[in-house]
């Protein structure tokens, strides 16, 4: 199937925008969030795409305010939110719940929600049912699923139904048991060639974007140069068209987890612990709440104070 997201002669993405000037339709609220066409145009214009995960409304507001281009409600929530050892037990209901929370916090960033393990592998019909649910019930604009050639039928079915798809190859955490752990993929010649074929299969099936996780930087750069659709790397070097990190990792919320590919842009674990410890001390000493945090009875006839 020809990929509808690849730029044809004349630069499809911007031409489509010119034909459908959404903001001119005054009676329909404009969609301010970045679309698949905006992201395609970023690759065409050599602009790097910044993507980050989020799992709730508060973090969604913060990362949106910081100007990220794409937000992923990753099934990594199984590990960072639910405390599981891997992503395998995450359900479609979990993704719907967190996807909805994040959607409410985003004004500008494009929202992608992960399809969890065994929600698309059984058949194209199963992928459609679950991908459709994510789109209808969360307000996301695209879904992400793992696998190269083996996931081509699911990708194609979703795209034909009008659901944009982000592919994901390299280290695919849903296959952790088959891969023997969370390891770099595509190091040997044969494995590298397989990844190049998988990347082409994902684009050919109609995905508009591709995540490359933990692959050698040279290989990721080669794949990025070969594809028309943007690649988003995590542990895949600087040659990708964009980067993604788990928000908890980039904020340094868990000091125990510091793999090589994560750069911590803040160290928030200890400031959070210190702030809560301070609160605990003040509660125990009776220093909190102070008078300014308290309500008082009105003078005259008793009235119930307004809370907010
Ligand atoms: O689940 C996730 O957060 C992901 C990213 C790490 C790409 O798939």
Quick recap of the structure?
With 308 residues, the chain is α/β, with parallel strands linked by helices.
CATH architecture field: Alpha-Beta Barrel
Bound molecules: 3-methyl-2-oxobutanoic acid
In CATH, the topology is named TIM Barrel
Q: Looking at this structure, what is the CATH superfamily?
A: Phosphoenolpyruvate-binding domains
Q: What Rg, in angstroms, do the CA atoms define?
A: 22 Å
Strand order of the largest sheet: 1-2-3-4-5-6-7-8
What is the topology?
Blueprint: H1 12-19, H2 36-44, E1 49-53, H3 57-65, E2 70-73, H4 77-80, H5 92-105, E3 110-114, H6 124-138, E4 142-144, H7 152-160, E5 165-170, H8 176-179, H9 189-205, E6 209-213, H10 217-226, E7 231-234, E8 242-245, H11 247-250, H12 269-285
Parallel strand pairs: 1-2, 1-8, 2-3, 3-4, 4-5, 5-6, 6-7, 7-8
Keyphrases for this structure?
308 residues; alpha/beta; TIM Barrel; eight-stranded parallel barrel; 12 helices; binds 3-methyl-2-oxobutanoic acid
Structure explained in plain terms:
It is a single chain. The chain contains twelve helices and eight strands. With 308 residues, the protein is of the alpha/beta class. It has a single domain, classed as Phosphoenolpyruvate-binding domains (TIM Barrel). It has an eight-stranded parallel β-barrel with strand order 1-2-3-4-5-6-7-8, surrounded by seven helices. Helix 3 links the parallel strand 1 and strand 2. The structure holds 3-methyl-2-oxobutanoic acid (KIV).
């Amino acid at each position: 199937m020809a990929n509808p997201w690849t730029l044809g002669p004349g630069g499809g993405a911007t031409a489509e925008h010119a034909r459908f000037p959404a903001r001119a339709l005054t009676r329909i609220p404009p969609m301010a969030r970045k679309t698949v066409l905006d992201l395609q145009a970023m690759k065409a214009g050599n602009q790097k795409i910044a993507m980050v995960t989020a799992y709730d409304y508060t973090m969604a507001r913060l990362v949106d305010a910081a100007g990220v281009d794409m937000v992923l409600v990753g099934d990594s929530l199984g590990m960072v939110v639910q405390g599981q050892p891997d992503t395998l037990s995450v359900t479609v209901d979990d993704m719907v719940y967190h996807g909805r929370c994040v959607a409410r916090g985003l004004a500008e960033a494009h929202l992608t929600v992960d399809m969890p393990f065994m929600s698309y592998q059984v058949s194209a019909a199963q992928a459609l049912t679950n991908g459709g649910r994510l789109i209808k019930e969360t307000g996301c604009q695209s879904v992400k699923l793992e696998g190269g050639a083996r996931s081509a039928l699911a990708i194609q079915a979703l795209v034909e139904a009008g659901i944009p798809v982000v592919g994901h190859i390299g280290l695919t955490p849903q296959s952790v048991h088959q891969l023997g752990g969370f390891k770099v993929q595509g190091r040997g010649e044969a494995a590298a060639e397989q990844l190049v074929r998988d990347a082409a299969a994902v684009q050919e099936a109609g995905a508009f974007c591709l995540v490359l996780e933990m692959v050698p930087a040279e290989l990721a750069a080669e794949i990025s140069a070969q594809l028309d659709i943007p690649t988003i790397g995590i542990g895949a070097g600087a040659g990708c068209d964009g980067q993604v990190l788990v928000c908890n990792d980039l904020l340094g919320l868990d000091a125990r987890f510091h793999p090589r590919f994560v750069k911590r842009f803040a160290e928030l674990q200890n400031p959070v612990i210190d702030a809560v410890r301070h609160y605990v001390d003040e509660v125990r000493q009776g220093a909190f709440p102070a008078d300014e945090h308290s309500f008082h009875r009105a003078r005259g006839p008793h009235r119930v104070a307004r809370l907010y």
